[in-house]
Amino acid sequence: MTFIHFAIILPLIAAFLIAIIHKYVKGIHLGWFVLPIPFIIVSYLFTLIPTIRNGDTLLLNLNFMPRIGMNYDVYIDGLGLLFAILISGIGTLVVLYSIGYLSQKEKLLNFYIYLLLFMTAMLGVVLLDNVLMLYLFWELTSISSFLLIAFWTTKERSTYGAQKSMLITMFGGFMMLGGFLLLSNLTGTFSIREMISASDQVTGIGAGTLAVVLVLLGAFTKSAQFPFYVWLPDAMEAPTPVSAYLHSATMVKAGLYLVARFTPVFMLSTTWVWTILIVGLITLCWASFNAFIKDDLKAVLAFSTVSQLGLIMSLLGISGLAVVRGANEQIFTVAVVAAVFHIINHATFKGALFMVTGIIDHQTGTRSIKKLGGLMTIMPITFTMALVTSLSMAGIPPFNGFLSKEMFLEAMFEISNANFSALASVGFLFPLLAIVGSIFTFLYSAKIVMQIFLGEETKETPKEPKEASALLLISPAILSLLVVVFGLFPNLLTKSIIDPAAMSIINAVEPLNTKISHWHGFNSPALWATIVIIVVGAALYYFRDTWIFIYKYIKDKFTINYLYDQGLHYITIYSNRFTRMLMTGFLRTYMVYIFGFLVILGFVTMLRTGLNLDFSNLAPIGIQDMILVGVILIALGIIMITKSRMVSIIMLGAVGFSMALFFVFFRAPDLALTQLAIETVTTTLFLVCFYHLPKQSKLPEKRKFKLTNFIVAVGVGAVSILIGLSAFSNRLFESISQYHIDHVYDLAAGKNMVNVILVDFRGYDTVFETLVFGIAGIGIYVLMRLTINNRKDDKNEERAEESRL
Amino acid sequence: MEFITIVLSGVLIGAATYLILSKSVLRIIIGISVLSHGIHLMLLTMGQLKRGNVPILEDSVTNYTDPLPQAMILTAIVISFALTAFSLVLALRNYKVLGSDDTETMKGAQNEN
What we know:
Chain B: Pfam families: Oxidored_q2. Chain B: Belongs to the CPA3 antiporters (TC 2.A.63) subunit C family. Chain B: This is Na(+)/H(+) antiporter subunit C1. Chain B: The chain crosses the membrane at residues 6-21, 28-49, 69-92. The structure holds two protein chains of two kinds. Helices cover 71% and strands 1% of the residues of chain A. By secondary structure, chain A is mainly α. Chain A folds into two domains: 3-542, no CATH class; 736-805, no CATH class. Chain A has a two-stranded antiparallel ribbon. By secondary structure, chain B is mostly helical. Chain B has one domain. Helix content of chain B is 68%, strand content 0%. Chain B is built from four helices and no strands. Chain B has helices spanning 2-20, 25-46, 67-98, 103-106. Chain B is elongated, with a radius of gyration of 19 Å.
């Protein structure tokens, strides 16, 4: 157990401490106690950067459940470390920001415990090498996300959004688990590293492709790709620090991490490459198109996040080709580097933008873009940060978003020229989609800046706007500063983190030596694409009133949201109906299920294995035996048809006493004695109860009811006979009886074998049998003595409620 | 003989099933009793019938009836008695409180969701 093992669960441990602190320390905002945790982790992670600098990796084993191959093995390479730093780094800023954002009146303890739980979960996802552990922590992120979205539990939209995100991401997670199991079946290991080295096993058309699809379902649901993106806009009901942290900077990138991590595993699968590339591009275009029309500032950012995730996803798709084609080809490495770089950039500018949104919401009381305007002079610092980050998002130089966006465009142009698949004829679509998506990105970025900060002040805000406190401003300020710094000096990052991360994605050994530059010369198509994006975007923004009508063609009934809502609605109805059909609440129905299942199982087994009977060794039949059989059958028949309780009790006694006689004939004196005694007591007991028992022992029953019972009863009888006959005919093992017979005297010093077995060989069984007997006795006694207050009806119902619980 | 006892125990078990599936609580309890009889007979048959002597050690005898099923049945008889007694008292109590021994009217459907 090294510090890094500990660091992953440190937030979880801290969650317990926070609960104790919360109880005893009042007056100080709980966030101050949480703040050191992510800070310690991020500081520690920074010290690991030199270790992985040249593509070296760190593997620290810790067995957790080695027998099922579930180990707590930490594997640190560029990719994992990059994500871990993002998680803990942004986490630090978000906790700081939340101190200003959430007042002491909120349920802070819940909030921080969920947040710390999420931190552990996320660190586990990106740092562990074992797919089972990965799945475990993956679902933990879904759960903590669910809890955080529903933080304001009284709001209906919150719970709706929480449920939606849970259902969609958990569905994906479950599919992903299936993919992992398939993969481990193909490669024979649960370790991702070993899967990578055995990746040539994952080539089969059937299982290999299925694994691709399943793992991608996990990634796409988590990273809100088309068509699963619908949960992310609704997740925006969470408090803004959560949106900044989970739903833009970290959790939704878990899907990207998964794709990046498994790229070397699926390196020979073309399904993998093209699905990711195409889904990513569609998501980019569709989400950015939708983002522009939204009025809620957070909804704009939610769709923007979806589209940016699509952008990174498509880049990772191209990285898949890098592995297929060899890492030295320039365009692929460009794509990988762009993907890694954009993950960092998106975390910085989108995190800051969410925090800015939170500030606006906090200071004005609304997030509606229509109600906002002219905030530039009132909130100058917020405006500056929003301007910088929006421009970065739009891909305007010199900010970091411009650099990665240009690399993205470059990669898309390259792939349209490269000639390697059936899709080559429509290769021009890739840059086209990229440019369309980028134009809409430009449009909504412009909308945020122009309509909120510029223009007239609307005076419609619920609160009088004023600049936020330093506590709220400091976190977005740090992120905005990073946007500028990474924009101006991108090569600060390349050596230290981008290259190692890119190398782990494409499984390269040689250092990449990436250089990110601002200027590629006039020949670069990306430059012209950027110019086109800015010019067309500006023109479209200026003339937006003339084309905005196209949004009206998107009817509510054709959205994926509508599908989700209707699907959920009907699933609930039908599952209720189905449950009610199965669970009638009648004891008899359940008994029919149980007996019916026994009958089916019995007959199926008999049909499959065949009946092998052997009657060569039977005991002789005496006349007295036949008389007894006759007595039992007659008594049984009378029990079945009689209506009188008296007769049925007497006939039951007759069956019991005949059994005792059988025991005598079969040379079991102890049994005969016991049976006689017990049967006498039973009959007595029945007679004691006689007075209170209902007059008739048989209730009127419908013909259909009887017929079903009859069929089931005959089936059970037949199956028991078959089981009995075949068990009697086939002795698979030597009987253990001989041991008891041989050692009855020398081991137990008794002569009556049955007694010795009961009190000596199987002594404990008898002890516990006595215990059962005692419990039954106490139960009977209590039932007899129990006085039930029958006067009040509502009290009776209460009791019924309790007993059912 | 074994063939006959196996069939007889099958008949007992089948009849018990029919009784257990009926509506009346008393018949259900009788069914449980009959079921245990059928199973005891089946168990005893599995150890083969009428072979050897009574399972009590004697110097002159070498061949005994299988004592193991007998020991198990002895336990089962006692347990089934406890079960019968308990369910009988429970049914009695139930009848006093609810005024019915029909399992369908006991369901209390108005309380279920």
